[in-house]
Structure formats: C-alpha cells, structure tokens
Amino acid sequence: MVGTKKTALALLTAAVAILILVTPQFTAMHTADTINKGPGVTAVKMLSDYFAGLKNTPGDTAVYVLDSGKPGGTALVVGGTHPNEPSGYIGAILLVEKARPTKGKLIVIPQANASGFTHNDYSEGSPQRFALTTPGGERWFRYGSRATNPVHQWPDPDIYVHAASGQKLSGSETRNLNRAYPGRPDGTLTEQIAYGIVELISREKVNLAIDLHEASPEYPVINALVFHERAMDVAAIAALDLEMEKIKIGLEPSPKTLRGLSHREWGDATGAMAVLMETANPAQGRLRGATNEALVLTGQDRMYERAAKLGRLFIPYDKNGQPLSLRVARHVTATMVLIRDSFEKDPRQAVVVTGVPSYREIVTKGVGAFL
Amino acid sequence: MITVVYRLIVVVVAVLVVWELFSQKEIKWQANAALVLIPLVLRAFMLV
Fold first, then answer.
1. C-alpha angle A322-A325-A330 in degrees, rounded to nearest 5
2. CA dihedral defined by A40, A349, A231, A200, rounded to 10 degrees?
3. Fewer CB within a 10 Å sphere, N or C end of chain A?
4. Tally of helices (H runs) and strands (E runs) in chain A
5. Which of the given ranges, A123-127, A269-273, A345-349, has the highest pLDDT on average?
6. Residue A270 carries which DSSP code?
7. What are the beta bridge partners of residue A99?
8. For A276-285, what is each residue's pLDDT tens digit?
9. pLDDT of residue B48
10. Predicted pLDDT of residue B2
11. Which residues does chain B have within 8 Å of residue A14's beta carbon, measured at their own beta carbons?
C-alpha cells in the first residue's frame, strides 16, 4: 500500500495514543505500596540514615524499628531483596504490621531494593501487581523485578566484577542486590544499597540477620535455610524445631567461595549470625505456563504438576500448588523460630516477639487476613 | 552526565525516526517507524 503524508500522520497519532495509554502503567510502578505501622513499630527510619549517600535516590527505603524498650538483642529481617519474590516482602510487611517485641529490638526492611519494585523483568510476562483480600478490603502489592531498575542504574557491564573479591558474573548481576554485598559507598546504586544495609547491621549491633527469598520449584535450594558458619548451630536447631511442627526445611551451608550474597557477606563483614531462607515460587520458574496474578497467589501450574510427577522438582507439588499464604507462613514461622532459638544460649541477648500469627493461622485464614 | 548524553542521543534518534515516518512511501515502512518510535519516547522520558 502506498503511504502518504496523511497515513504517516495517522500512524504518528496512533503511536502517540499508545504512549498515552501505556505511560500510566509504567508510572504506576513508581507509586509506593502502603505499609501500615503496626502496634510494635516505634520508629520509621530510612536506609539513608545509615548511609547518607542514598538520600533522595531510588535506592533509599524504609526501615521499621520495633523496639520493646527492654534490654536484649537485635534481630533484622530483610524482605524485597528480589522484588519478584513476594513471600519475602509480604512476610516482612506482616511482621511490621503485627509483631510486638516484649524484649530486645526487631528491625524490618520490607523492600530492600526499592528500585527493583519500580519495574518488571523483561520477557517474563509478570504481572505488575497482585491483590490480597484483607479485612479492610482489597489491597494491592507490586510484583517487581529481581534487579535494580536499569533506568536508575545503567549501563550494565559485559561482566560484573564483585568489588571485594574479583569474582566474575554475567553483566546483569551488577543490578542484583544479593550479589553486591558488602557493597561500596562509592559504587553503583545497588552496591550503595548493600553498603547501607551492612552499615545498619554494624551500627545497630544486629545479632541475627535474616534475608527472605524465593526461587523456582526446580531449583535445588528451596524450602531451605542457607546459613553462615557462625549461624550453623542456630540454623540446625531451628530446622529441627520446624520439623517438630511438621514444616520440612533443608539446611545449606553458605559456600565460602560464592561471594556477594547476604548469608556470606553479612556474616563476614559484621558480627551478625546471617541466614537466608527460600520458599518455592512457581511464578519464577522456567517450566511455568501463563504468568499472571493467579499464579503468584495460588502457585498452581499444570506444568509443575507434570514435572513433580516426573520427579523433576525438589519440593512436594500437587494440584494445590504453592500458595502465597503457605510460602509466607513458612517464612514468618521460620523467622520466629530462628529468633527464639538464636538467643537461647544467652537469654540476656534475647529478642522476644509476640503478636505474630501462627503457621496454621496464616495457611488456613490466608495471609490477607492479617494485613 | 552520561545519562544526559544518552537521552540526547535517544531524542535525536526519535526525531530521525519521525522524519523517516514522513519520508517513507510504503505504509508498511511507515508503520514500522511508528512502532519503533514508542519505546524510544518511553526511554527518552526514562519511563522504561
């Protein structure tokens, strides 16, 4: 067909119309999720309070302090290191909104990589957000990307060299917060966020630091607890205690040669016992079918059912899938058990947390009932 | 600074694509230019 000035103008108008249509969808990703201050929250700080270089950057994020006012230890829970792993940040938000420490201090960072919440991974077809039914009505949360937004940090190098070790990884890992620890004050935005978190752990004299994650069901390290060597005893006892409650969890030592990860670098760079936990999120997996809000919430996928029947998965998987409520229940319960067990040796350093719903309550009523 | 230079390059490329859109004599190439323009404008405004 012959193109004329009129057809060119019509096509330009169509392009502008598409731009007007899609722009609000992208800008909506920059609107912050609502996180309510629970009864235990005594202060809301920013990560830039620990590293001023983050002030007024997309890497700054809220730090919730739940201080009992009574002497004891300090526990840190970090969610949202990877914003496409929702059980981690929803679990952390649940702690902010429900936990009431009666001894010691609990610090929670629900959205560690705030920049990662402002976009999706390309070519993944992930939903931009998902809704939970709560007593106050429908509540939306963003489903972000594994990495910092390239709009905030670019360009990616061909090879990412971990500054502290010289370890080489693929270029896109330069925006992965969990490859950036211990971070650098003059590094990339992701390295600066990592540096801020390590500064927080040091300054707050955190005894126990927990990083909440998810991985695909075909990944071997899922429903697992990855521990720094100084946290080995605590992790082992916690795994046994969880087993008593019929919650199976694997134990994985943090590899000394795999650098940049929280369970390695937090433990090496600070005095904290560092632990990372993984649940199974089919929405991240390579075998999944349609990637939508339902998959994020229910974790039900026919392809994963088939894979389980063929013995290709590392977790039990049936038609009930891996619902978000189950995954959050695992994280929250394991966090509570770790906090309890980690201070048994020295009760003066104990952190006692009340008000958090049990595993059974979260699974049966759904996580939305507590938000 | 590098971001400013990058965005300027993106704007220049977007202008050239609009020029191309009006220069092409076949509608399929005009449509092609219109499609290319969308991500360029989104990137120029750093929306994606």
1. 80
2. 60
3. N
4. 9, 14
5. A269-273
6. S
7. none
8. 999 999 999 9
9. 83
10. 84
11. 34
Can you tell me the distance from the alpha carbon of B39 to that of A250, in angstroms, rounded to the nearest whole number? 44
Residues of chain B positioned with their CB less than 8 A from the CB of A23: 42, 45, 47
Q: What is the helix (H) or strand (E) element at residue A224, kind and residue range?
A: strand A224-227
Q: Which ipTM was obtained for this model? A: 0.95
On chain A, the residues whose CB falls within 8 A of the CB of B30 are 3, 7-8, 11
**Strand A273-280 with A208-215, pairing:** parallel
| Residue B12, min C-alpha distance to chain A (Å) | 17
Do the Cβ atoms of A87 and A99 come closer than 8 Å? no
Side chain identity at A180, as an amino acid letter?
A
Using the beta-carbon criterion (under 8 Å), do B24 and A14 form an inter-chain contact?
Answer: no
Q: If residue A278 lies in a helix (H) or strand (E), which one and from where to where?
A: strand A273-280
Q: What is the pLDDT of residues A200-258, one digit of tens each?
A: 999 999 999 999 999 999 999 999 999 999 999 999 999 999 999 999 999 999 999 99
Q: What residues in A contact B41, CB-CB < 8 Å?
A: 15, 19
Q: State in words which class domain A36-370 has.
A: alpha beta
Q: Tell me, what amino acid is at A355? A: G
Residue type, B41: V
Residue A147 in tokens: 């990495």
Residue A12: which of B18, B26, B46 has the nearest Cβ? B18
Q: What is the SS3 assignment for A76-128?
A: EEECCCCCCCHHHHHHHHHHHHHCEEEECEEEEECCCCHHHHHCCCCCCCCCC
Region B9-21 average pLDDT: 97
Shortest CA distance from A21: residue in chain B: B38
Joined together, the tokens standing for residue A350 give 């104990």
Q: What does pTM read for this prediction?
A: 0.94
Question: What are the phi and psi torsion angles at A322 (to 5°)?
Answer: -130, 80
Report the alpha-carbon distance of residue A147 to residue A116 in Å, rounded.
Answer: 5
Nearest by Cα to A209 from A284, A247, A155, A264: A264
Contact B26 A7 (CB under 8 A): no
Tell whether omega for the bond before A182 is within 30 degrees of 0, i.e. cis. Answer: yes
DSSP A2: B
- Identity at A205, one-letter amino acid code: K
